[in-house]
Each structure stands twice: as structure tokens, then as C-alpha cells.
Design goal:
Structural class: alpha/beta
Largest sheet: 6 strands, parallel
CATH superfamily of one domain: NAD(P)-binding Rossmann-like Domain
CATH class of one domain: Alpha Beta
CATH topology of one domain: Rossmann fold
Strand order of the largest sheet: 2-1-3-4-5-10
Shape: globular
Distance between the termini: 50 Å
Radius of gyration: 19 Å
Number of helices: 10
CATH architecture of one domain: 3-Layer(aba) Sandwich
Bound molecules: NADP nicotinamide-adenine-dinucleotide phosphate
């Protein structure tokens, strides 16, 4: 009988978790054990300890997070509790059992002022509470578990939950023309593609020598786009697939008042991940197409 690599996943109902479930459905070598916040509340050390003790996984994968960037301004304690303290709890308790942790972080740890892509040696300087709380999580994970991989990803979209692509389609279904900011530039990343990369990464890390591997890596789809360019591609592809489409015009971030400041240009360099593990992301048209095809019909068709 094949011994499967067991991975404890915190944050069962998030879009990346759901994407991982789809991406790993056929995997015979990996066993992902997903826990929602009722079964495993990362903010409670006791809860983390009980589950890790019982399951004794080969890896801990932290996909639990407080991800509403605007709400985090109003509820900073909640954001810090999940993104900072929670990440630290998982790191510390997994370290006790010598279990490696893979922790997901964000491009929002940067201030967005750099003109060229950010690499892992660049200075972090978050401009909002969400970014600060995620940076606190990164720091705790790297301090508390010597076997850690911190993966900074960006601008996730998927067929699950609310995200930029599903929001665009719901607006397009209503036939509204949209104004989308052209001065925020990042790496739109399909959670389905990221999930496949995570599974591949775990295979590579299994039984590996951790001596020089622990650290922070950037892992996102490599093509940088502005939100405006991204939106144009989504509605164009939606039209080609007989879905809703609408007019999209360019706007500036300053035209929209939001509780949280957004860093403007957080393009990530993936060179370190590419050179260490190899990077496999399809062209963005294919990634967007896959997500559009997988979205529930109710979100793609005018009612
Ligand atoms: N979304 C993006 O654009 C983006 C960009 C860069 C990085 N990231 C990072 O990527 C990772 C995955 O993001 P995502 O978009 O999949 O997030 P998501 O859809 O918001 O999912 C986060 C999950 O964490 C769970 N959670 C919240 N508090 C918890 C707690 N105390 N204990 C256990 N679980 C808890 C939530 O549970 P409930 O369902 O019960 O609320 C939710 O299922 C996060 O680390 C995020 O910071 C995301």
C-alpha cells in the first residue's frame, strides 16, 4: 500500500482551500485533511495543539486568514489575531513535533512604491492593517518553526467565494459599464493554478533536506497586469465564452474612497521560487478561462 503524505490544511472554506480540494481530487500520493474554523480555530493554541497532536501530519498548510482588506481597518484586533497570532500558533505547535509549515502571505506586505518587481530581499513596509497583520504572521512563522516556507502570493481569483473576477461577472450580468483602476498593478493569480503549485511543492519538499530551503518565496502568476487590464481580459473572455460582458474604462485609485489604502505597484519577482522549485503557470488567458468555465452558471448568465 502506498504511504500518502498527510497535510493538515487550516481554513477549509476559503477559495484557496476549495481550489486545492479540486486540484488534488485525483492525487493518490497526497492526503489533504481540511479543517474549518470550528474544528481548528488558529487563534486558539489549544485547538491547534489538539488537532496537530491527533493527526500528526507530515506538513501543516496554513490557508486560514482574515482577508477583508477594508474590514481589517475597522477590526484590526481580529486581523492581527488570525493573521499574526494564528499563524504563530500553527508554526510553534508544528515545530514541537518537527513538522514543516507552509504559510501563505501576500504582496501587500510591500508599500507598492518600487518601479521594478519586488524580490524576497526587498524591504517590507505595509500601508494597511491587513498587510501589517500578514507581515506579523510571516515573522512569527519564520521565527518559531525552523522548517518553514512562507509563500507570498497575490490577487487571487477562483470559481469560489467573492473575488474580483466573480464580482466583475456579477456586475456584467447587470449590464453596467465599469470603471476600474488602472494604477494598481499586480500579479492576478488563479487559485486553481496556485493550488496545483502547492501540491507540486509539497511533493518536492517531502523527505527533503531543509538545511537551505526554509525561507520566504514569491509564488504568483508571472504576468503583471493593472486591475483595468485584468478586467478587460476577463470580460473579453467571458464574451467569447457566451457569458456576460460589459464596457470597462480606466479610472484612478484616488477616485474611489476606501477604508484601507492600497499599495499601487506590488509586482512580484518569482525568480527565487523558479530557481529553487520551478514555476508552472499557464498563460493568463487559459487561467481566466478555466475559472470562468468553472464558475456556477447562476453567476455567468443574465437572470
Ligand atoms: N485573496 C487574495 O486576493 C489574496 C492575495 C494575496 C494573498 N492571499 C492570502 O492567501 C491565503 C488564502 O486566501 P483566500 O483568498 O483563500 O482567503 P479566504 O477565501 O478569505 O479564506 C480564508 C479562510 O480562513 C478562515 N478563517 C478565518 N479565521 C479563521 C480562524 N480563526 N481559524 C481558522 N480559519 C479561519 C475563513 O473561515 P470562514 O470561511 O469561516 O470565514 C476562510 O475559510 C491567505 O493567507 C491570504 O492572506 C490572498
Amino acid at each position: 500500500m502506498t504511504v500518502r503524505t498527510r497535510v493538515l490544511v487550516a481554513g477549509k472554506n476559503g477559495q484557496l482551500s476549495k481550489s486545492l480540494k479540486v486540484a488534488s481530487a485525483a492525487a493518490t500520493d497526497l492526503e489533504f485533511c481540511f479543517f474549518d474554523r470550528h474544528a481548528l480555530d488558529v487563534t486558539k493554541a489549544q485547538s491547534c495543539s489538539a488537532i496537530i497532536d491527533r493527526l500528526r501530519p507530515d506538513f501543516v498548510l496554513n490557508l486560514a486568514a482574515y482577508t477583508s482588506v477594508d474590514d481589517a481597518e475597522r477590526f484590526p484586533d481580529d486581523a492581527h489575531s488570525v493573521n499574526g497570532v494564528g499563524a504563530g500558533n500553527l508554526a510553534q505547535i508544528s515545530a514541537v513535533h518537527d513538522i514543516p509549515i507552509i504559510h501563505i502571505s501576500t504582496d501587500y506586505v510591500f508599500d507598492g512604491e518600487k518601479r521594478s518587481p519586488y524580490d524576497e530581499t526587498d524591504r517590507t513596509n505595509p500601508v494597511n492593517t491587513y498587510g501589517m497583520s500578514k507581515l506579523a504572521g510571516e515573522n512569527s512563522v519564520s521565527r518559531l518553526n525552523p522548517k518553514h516556507i512562507v509563500l507570498r502570493t497575490a490577487w487571487l481569483y477562483s470559481p469560489f467565494g467573492s473575488n474580483f473576477v466573480s464580482w466583475l461577472l456579477s456586475m456584467a450580468v447587470e449590464g453596467r459599464p465599469l470603471r476600474i483602476v488602472a494604477d494598481q498593478v499586480g500579479n492576478p493569480t488563479s487559485a486553481l493554478d496556485l493550488a496545483k503549485s502547492l501540491a507540486d511543492l509539497i511533493r518536492q519538499l517531502d523527505n527533503t533536506d531543509w538545511t537551505n530551503l526554509s525561507g520566504t518565496y514569491h509564488l504568483a502568476a508571472p504576468e503583471p497586469l493593472s486591475r483595468f487590464q485584468w478586467a478587460k481580459r476577463v470580460v473579453a473572455l467571458s464574451g467569447e465564452l457566451y457569458g456576460p460582458t460589459c464596457q470597462v474604462s480606466a479610472a484612478a485609485t484616488t477616485e474611489f474612497a476606501t477604508p484601507a489604502t492600497r499599495p499601487l505597484r506590488t509586482v512580484l519577482s518569482m525568480d527565487k521560487f523558479q530557481n529553487t522549485f520551478g514555476l508552472k503557470f499557464p498563460p493568463i488567458e487559459q487561467s481566466i478561462g478555466d475559472v470562468l468555465q468553472a464558475l456556477p452558471r447562476s453567476r455567468k448568465v443574465a437572470q
